Amino acid sequence: MRDKIIFDLIEQESNRQDNDIQLIASENYVSEQVMEAQGSILTNKYAEGYPGKRYYGGCEVIDEIEVIAQERFKKLFKTDYHVNVQPHSGSQANQGVFNCILNPGDKVLGMSLDHGGHLTHGHALSLTGKLYEISSYVTDENGELNYDEIRKIAIDVKPKLIICGASAFSLEIDFEKFSLIAKEVGAYLLADIAHIAGLVATGNHMSPFAHVDFVTTTTHKTLRGPRGGVIACKEEHAKLLDRSVFPGIQGGPLEHVIGAKAVAFYEALSDDFKVYQDQVVANCKAFCNQFIELGYTIISGRTENHLFLIDVLQSVGVTGKDAENILGKHNITVNKNSIPNDTLSPVISSGIRLGTAAMTTKGYNESDFILLANKIDQILKENK
Ligand SMILES: *Cc1c(COP(=O)(O)O)cnc(C)c1O
User: Fold this and answer.
1) What CATH class is the domain 32-268?
2) Which one, 20, 62, 180, 257, has the greatest CB density within 10 A?
3) Closest Cα to residue 219, out of 116, 73, 66, 68?
4) What tens digit of pLDDT does each residue of 198-224 get?
5) Overall pTM > 0.85
6) Is 351 touching ligand 1 by the criterion CB < 6 Å?
7) Ligand 1 neighbour 118 (Cβ under 6 A)
8) Among the four given CATH numbers 3.40.50.300, 3.90.1150.10, 3.90.226.10, 2.60.40.2470, the one describing domain 275-383
């Protein structure tokens, strides 16, 4: 019997995704073949363990798929790091790293959430904030990372792990500078490239590989694959890392998602994907510059990747929450976002975050984004 209720709702959501303008920086539209793999019979298979070392029979085909996913990831990021494609999400990828090298109570240094870091980098409400002793670094008065300041904090804190990588930061992250700091204080270094993975793959952002002990990523943001996570690490951590993911924090891997990850990496290895990422970055610059032109306050002053944040409270006198609602009523989907030293609570916030990955997939170019900036400006000013 067909479940009409859910399939009707999927139809509704499909219409929303087709008709609204999606500017959420962490979202994208996957290809038909990514969805085909993810919606396949691979979901029926239990495969606890790793290729060649499973705890279930009948894993011969699954093993081939998982190895292909690993190999394609290595090729895509031009790395010989060990790759684990099993994390169910970006959060679980981070948890897998923490569980691999940290004990409860160990010190971790990450980027503060309201300066662009992610919840799993030690926010008090995240398990990471409960298990480990967290210190944070913030952006400076220009919204930039001040590596001398971060070095001072690292020397002072002596963390066992330093995390670099962000969810709401529009400037390039210098993984090499972070690696010098980590070396100096004897800390492990984790680069969380969840947002920028697509840009890293195509050389539109500095690569963390060779500079860091661990790389974590999601596969569903700029990388344009299924919802999921990946961890890569230096060979010396390989065994412990695999054990940390399974049986440490997960049971059976989602092999249908791993199949879809492999398809996404295949697509990302194509010349088209480089063209796409170039356009994502060019669109973001054009979009951001138009807001600057219109007099808006941009956090960090500019963008060097696929996203940027606007201080809407200062720019037009609406809160992030209201801006999200107003734009939502005009079929433009954005998310409210805290800005550095925000005076409002995270559920209200002074900012919105805008990204170009999804609409670039839909074919938007620079002039589309310039028109869109004008439209957003007009909507916010008419409805505040
Ligand atoms: C999105 C994101 C994550 C978490 O990914 P989920 O799949 O939502 O768990 C982790 N780290 C960073 C930096 C992110 O932007």
Assistant:
1) alpha beta
2) 257
3) 73
4) 999 999 999 999 999 999 999 999 999
5) yes
6) no
7) yes
8) 3.90.1150.10
